TrEMBL record:
The keyword DNA-binding applies. Gene3D superfamilies: Tetracycline Repressor, domain 2. This is TetR/AcrR family transcriptional regulator. Keywords: DNA-binding, Transcription, Transcription regulation.
Length: 194
């Protein structure tokens, strides 16, 4: 563990180490002993910070969503300031989710969300926060979107983001930049036509 990580609070050190181990080895395949070694602390100290591995997953979900919300908030501000067009905003949004590179961890977390109700609720709460931004982006493409049409547009965007964020397993024919461009043009055209 690097000197910078040594200075982090225990919970952050555990979360960072767990994120790396879970992404590499899988959630269920990572033992607490391995996690303790990676975080450079005792198993007992891990249990003082987190009651279970599910609690660690929740911490990862919250931290990842908080980071993603900062990124999407910056896009929203650039759109509001006229620095980005609606098309450019969607292109950047799609690129952000495709370039994360943690698909295996994401699948593991989603699977745990189905197995563990509390983890599932946390994912749902985070997605609801995310939907607020997506509603704004949909309305930027078509100010007339309202009610069920707005909710449908929001769910379509959320589904696109989930799908694009997990696309490498399908061995795509286009690179991220092309897919982001094509997807952004299609979404904006579809929303404007509603």
């Amino acid at each position: 563990m690097g000197a910078v990580q040594q200075k982090l609070p225990s919970a952050d050190r555990i979360r960072i180490a767990a994120r790396e181990l879970f992404a590499t080895n899988g959630f269920h395949q990572t033992s607490m002993a391995e996690l303790a070694a990676a975080a450079d602390m005792s198993v007992g100290l891990i249990y003082r910070s987190f009651k279970s591995k599910a609690d660690i997953i929740e911490a990862i979900v919250r931290a990842d969503f908080d980071e993603k919300l900062l990124e999407i908030g910056a896009l929203r501000q650039q759109l509001a300031d006229g620095e980005l067009t609606v098309l450019e905003t969607f292109r950047q949004l799609f690129l952000q989710v495709m370039d994360e590179g943690d698909e295996a961890l994401s699948f593991d977390i989603l699977a745990e969300g189905f197995r563990n109700e509390r983890v599932g609720q946390t994912i749902g709460e985070m997605c609801e926060r995310f939907r607020g931004y997506l509603r704004e982006f949909a309305r930027a493409a078509n100010a007339r979107l309202d009610g069920e049409d707005l909710e449908g547009a929001t769910e379509l965007l959320l589904g696109c983001l989930f799908g694009l964020g997990h696309r490498s397993i399908s061995r795509p024919n286009l690179d991220s930049a092309h897919i982001a461009e094509q997807s952004a043009r299609m979404i904006v055209a579809a929303f404007r036509d509603m």
